[in-house]
Design goal:
Layout: H1 2-16, H2 19-22, E1 26-27, E2 31-43, E3 56-66, E4 71-85, H3 93-98, E5 101-116, E6 129-142, E7 145-147, E8 172-174, E9 197-210, E10 215-226, H4 241-248, H5 250-256, E11 281-294, E12 297-298
Antiparallel strand pairs: 1-12, 2-3, 2-11, 3-4, 4-5, 5-6, 6-9, 7-8, 9-10, 10-11
Length: 303
């Protein structure tokens, strides 16, 4: 009975406190989960900085733990799409002749540290909003593809591709398996096929605000430094058709040099196809909304 009286007394005491006062009493640092939605893009051999028209939707899940007012730990699981096309820069004679393009879905799992520049108290008291910087490490999976057009013709109106390739017309073809730059051929066995799962380094800036004592929202822009130059399947130089086609088939030879589809002569062997000294990047511009699920709960006054 004594314990019951204590519980009832605590309940009555909490009920008698104004709601606005109760919301300012929290216990422990919270764990937050939520959604992130926004846009994805890419920067590499098939772009000049960023092509806005190649922007795609992205989305995913986010989990945050506020260690203290200055440091927040965050985990992400996101899905997006990246793409590029030389046709976006047809005023550039080389890109117009190269005529390459790609598209790839991308899945990323990452862990980051957010540094809250003004400090951040995840309530409506104190500092309920702050800009922040973030950095971390991620693992991402991608798979560049391009759409094959069998009906392309040469300047004389003759079919450009072998009849055996007709079955691939308008299909999206995976490029990594084709070795379009001679990967793992006898002559270029030092060129290995690039792995489709790689490491990235997320870097960026954001702003977040506590909406109320449960919900928070934010916006951020993040770049992902990668350690590959093959997000777009383009990096080194042109390799002889017989080498690429002999190792990986007619489709590989057809997709390594697509200038002839526009009536251009094929590039000479050894001519640059891309710039291997600069690695590719991908990026997200996204909004976040999170909700506390553990910690940070309203409690009674201590007597």
């Amino acid at each position: 009975m004594k314990s019951l009286k204590v519980v009832l007394l605590c309940v009555v005491a909490c009920a008698s406190i104004p709601l606005s006062a109760q919301k300012k009493l929290f216990k422990g640092k919270p764990l937050e989960v939520g959604l992130t939605l926004g846009a994805s893009n890419y920067m590499g051999d098939l772009s000049k900085l960023v092509a806005v028209n190649e922007t795609h939707p992205m989305g995913g899940l986010i989990c945050r733990f506020n260690m203290n007012d200055w440091i927040t730990l965050r985990g992400n699981a996101v899905f997006g799409t990246i793409s590029a096309d030389d046709k976006n820069f047809d005023s550039d004679a080389f890109r117009k002749q190269r005529n390459l393009n790609f598209r790839s879905n991308l899945v990323e799992f990452s862990g980051c540290i957010e540094y809250n520049l003004l400090g951040f108290e995840e309530t409506q008291r104190g500092t309920p909003s702050t800009p922040y910087l973030f950095a971390g490490i991620g693992v991402f999976k991608y798979n560049p593809k391009t759409q094959f057009h069998y009906l392309a013709t040469d300047p004389n109106g003759l079919a450009l591709h072998d009849a055996a390739l007709k079955k691939y017309d308008n299909q999206w073809i995976e490029l990594q398996t084709l070795g379009t730059e001679g990967q793992e051929t006898t002559k270029f066995n030092d060129r290995k096929r690039y792995p489709l799962t790689q490491i990235s380094i997320p870097l960026g800036v954001g702003y977040k605000k506590q909406w109320d004592d449960v919900w928070a929202w934010g916006v951020e822009f993040g770049m992902r430094k990668t350690f590959t130059d093959y997000l777009d399947d383009v990096s080194k130089d042109y390799v002889d058709n017989q080498i690429v086609g002999g190792a990986n088939g007619l489709l590989a030879a057809a997709l390594k040099d697509r200038g002839p589809e526009l009536g251009y002569a094929p590039f000479d062997n050894g001519m640059g196809r891309g710039n291997s000294s600069n690695k590719d990047w991908y990026m997200f511009l996204n909004f976040t909304i999170t909700r506390k699920i553990v910690g940070g709960k309203t409690v009674c006054f201590q007597f």
